[in-house]
């Protein structure tokens, strides 16, 4: 904007200078004419002074006077126009200078504001960077905390299910209650685990899970009174239960079931023994320690299998 104003003022000044030059040229021409006052307007052939007519001479003198008056009037008119032009140029130059001064002040203010805005932007951007780093750090810590919390929740849930077994294949009747469901489990255990006299007092609770199916009974989750009774069923009654068409497994958490699905979707044979994940002969520790029924901390045994002797080298542990 400032450059455009300067260019306009420069062009206007050149135009005024050209005009002044023209006026000065006219003044010079007029002055030359004034200096040659005795020159005739239309000089004719030379005449002898003897033959000169006095009347004609007086006419020539009168014409010269008229010419001088006309040139003087024209000079004065040009001088007035020149002075008026000078005054006009002076006023316009003063206006242009005032505008340039105002424009320069505005530009200076804009520069100052721009500097302030840049400083504020740098400060805001710095705060934003610090906030971003803080948020990123908090997100990382939150993910770690959520992972730790989920691990603890899964561990507590697994511990709450440690006395549970899930039975598949026990016949289901209409309007079955918790008591009748528990009695069916006791009857099955009488036939498959004969080393113990089973009673309803050995079962805390038994109930069906899942939606009703017409051609297939739902699974039964059984919570035993004692953990030893659960191990008795797993170690000494699994094969007989299988012969009767009843399958039994541990009551896994949702996280444990998801882990098994991921491994099995990859074509791997995976299952849990206690709190250990077994994948085709390798053992993966799920928790460092387990807690016994009396609250004392104890380390669970690690059980491994080779590919060819998986069925014969199984340790007497809780297999899920």
Automatic annotation (TrEMBL):
Taxonomic superkingdom: Eukaryota
The entry's keywords: Signal
Signal sequence, start to end: 1-37
Stretches with biased composition (Polar residues): 295-312
Stretches for region Disordered: 42-63, 283-320
InterPro entries: Transposase_22
Claim: Phosphoprotein is one of the keywords in the record: no
Keyword Signal among record annotations: yes
PANTHER family: L1 TRANSPOSABLE ELEMENT-RELATED
The protein's name: Uncharacterized protein
């Amino acid at each position: 904007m400032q450059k455009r104003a300067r260019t306009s003022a420069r062009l206007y000044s050149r135009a005024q200078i050209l005009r002044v030059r023209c006026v000065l040229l006219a003044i010079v021409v007029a002055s030359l004419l004034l200096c040659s006052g005795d020159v005739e307007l239309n000089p004719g052939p030379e005449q002898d002074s003897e033959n000169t007519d006095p009347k004609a001479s007086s006419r020539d003198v009168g014409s010269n006077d008229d010419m001088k008056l006309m040139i003087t009037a024209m000079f004065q008119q040009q001088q007035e126009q020149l002075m008026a032009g000078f005054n006009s140029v002076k006023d316009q130059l003063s206006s242009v200078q005032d505008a340039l001064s105002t424009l320069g002040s505005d530009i200076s203010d804009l520069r100052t504001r721009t500097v302030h805005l840049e400083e504020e932007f740098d400060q805001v951007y710095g705060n934003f960077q610090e906030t971003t780093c803080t948020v990123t750090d908090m997100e990382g810590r939150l993910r770690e905390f959520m992972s730790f919390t989920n691990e603890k929740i899964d561990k507590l849930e697994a511990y709450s299910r440690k006395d549970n077994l899930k039975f598949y294949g026990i016949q289901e009747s209409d309007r079955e209650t918790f008591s009748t469901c528990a009695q069916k489990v006791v009857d099955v255990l009488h036939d498959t685990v004969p080393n113990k006299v089973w009673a309803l007092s050995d079962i805390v609770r038994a109930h069906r899970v899942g939606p009703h199916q017409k051609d297939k009974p739902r699974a039964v989750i059984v919570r035993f009174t004692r953990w030893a009774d659960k191990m008795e069923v797993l170690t000494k009654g699994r094969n007989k239960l299988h012969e009767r068409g009843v399958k039994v497994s541990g009551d896994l958490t949702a996280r444990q079931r998801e882990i098994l699905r991921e491994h099995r979707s990859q074509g791997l044979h995976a299952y849990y023994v206690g709190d250990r994940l077994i994948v085709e002969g390798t053992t993966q520790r799920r928790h460092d320690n387990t807690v016994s029924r009396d609250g004392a901390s104890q380390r669970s045994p690690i059980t491994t299998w080779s590919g060819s002797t998986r069925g014969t080298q199984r340790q007497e542990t809780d297999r899920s």
